[in-house]
Structure prediction request, 452 residues.
Amino acid sequence: MLDLPDPTQLAVPAFVLLVLAEIFYGWKTGRARFEGKDTMTSLIMGLGSTVSGALTAALAIGFSYWVWANFALFDLGAAWWVFVLAFVLDDLAYYWIHRMGHRMRWMWAAHVIHHSSQHYNLSTALRQTWTGQFTPGILFKMPIFLLGVEPAIVFFCAGINLIYQFWIHTEAIDKMPRWFEYLFNTPSHHRVHHANNPRYLDANYAGVFMVWDRMFGSFIPEEKTEPCRYGLVTDLGTFNPLRVALHEWVGIFKDIWHAATWRDRMLFLLAPPGWTPDGSRMTSDMIRSAWLERNKAKSKDPTPAD
Amino acid sequence: MDLVQIGGSLIAIIVLAVIAARLFPVKGGLTRERVLRNVRRFCPDIEFEVVSAKVFIGTKGEAAVLLFPDPHDGVAVATALGDRVVVRHIEDLSTITASRNKSGLTVDTHDFTQPTVALDLPEEQVSDLMALLTTEQSISGGPLHA
Prediction:
C-alpha cells in the first residue's frame, strides 16, 4: 500500500490563517462578512468532519483496496502521469458525487451541512459533513479503482481537490481572468452553487474543472443583476452542531416511518430533496418552475408586486 | 487525529469565532420591515397587502409571528439567527403549539431544524396574539394550545 500524506490535514494551519486573514480583510473593506456563532458552527463542523472521517476511514479504504486488488483491469503503478490521470478522473467522480449529493436525498442528508450557513466565507468551506461515509458516494470512484489506479493515489488527489475548493468560498474575489473562469471552478461559480435564489438552484457542481458542468448542462453563470443569497431553501433555525449534522437524517427517518408504501419509503431516500408522494413539499425543480411562472406572470402584468 | 490536535483545533476555533464576533457584531433585531421582507422572500406565492398583515415582534427583536390577512394562509414565524433571519411558514396551525411563558409567548413548531421560538411580548399583545391564533386555528383545524 502506497504511503502518501493526507494533504488536507497538512493544510489545516493554512486554513486557519486564511480564515483569520479574511476576517480582518472583511472588517477593513466590507468585502467579506462573518458572524461569530456562524463561524463557530462552521469550524466545529469541520473539526467533527475530520474526526468522523478518521473514525470511518478504514471502511472506505478497506473497500476500495478490496475492489482494486481483486478486480482492477490494469496495474497502472505510481508514475507521475497516473497522479495526473487520477486527479482528472477523481474530479469527474467528484462532479457526479456532488451532483447526486444534491439530487438524491440520501446523499443530500450528508452534504446539506455544507450548505447550511447563510454566510459565504472561508469558514463555510470548512463546514463539512460528519456522515459522508454513510452514503453510497464512494461507489462513484469505483471505476477509477477498476481501471487500476491505486486507492491511495485517488484519496491523495481527492485531498488536493478539497484544498483547491477552500479558496473559492469567498465573496472577497469577484471574477478571475476570463480564461480561468472558463476552465476552473472559481469564487464566482461557487457562489452560484451556494445560492438559494431559484435561478441558481442545483448548478455548478464542479470541484476543480468547470468543464464538467459545461459538458453535462449544469453550468449557470453569476449574474450581476441577481446577487447570490446563501443558505438552504428552508434555512436552519439553529447553530447547534448536532442538529446541523443530523437534521436531514432525522427528516428522512420521520418520513420513512410515516410512509404508506415501500415505494414511498425508497423514494424518500432516493428521490430529490423535497420530494413527497403528494407533492406537499417542493423539490428544487418545482421551486424553479414556480419562479419561472411568477416571472412570466410579472412580465405580462407590468404592475410591480409591491 | 490525536487529542492534542483536537484540543489545539478547539482553541483555534474559539479564537477565530471570538474575533469574528467582535469585528462583526450583530446589530439590531427584527423590525416590521425586515420581517415582511423575509416573509415575502420565503413565501413568494402568498400575495398579501403589507398593511393588512398583523406582525407581533418580540421586544428584543429576537422573533416575530406574522398572521397573513387570509387565515387560510396561516402564519409565518421569523427568528433572528445571528445577523440573519430564518422564516417558517405554518399553514396548518394544528402542527404547532403556542403557550404563554413568564415574559410572553412560546411557539413550538415541532421542527428539528427550528427549536422552540420564544417571544418577549407585553401581556396585552400575548392575549391578542393568542386570540388571533385561536381564531385561525379554528379555520385550519386541530389543537393549538399546550
Observations:
- Residues 302-306 of chain A have pLDDT under 50 and may be disordered.
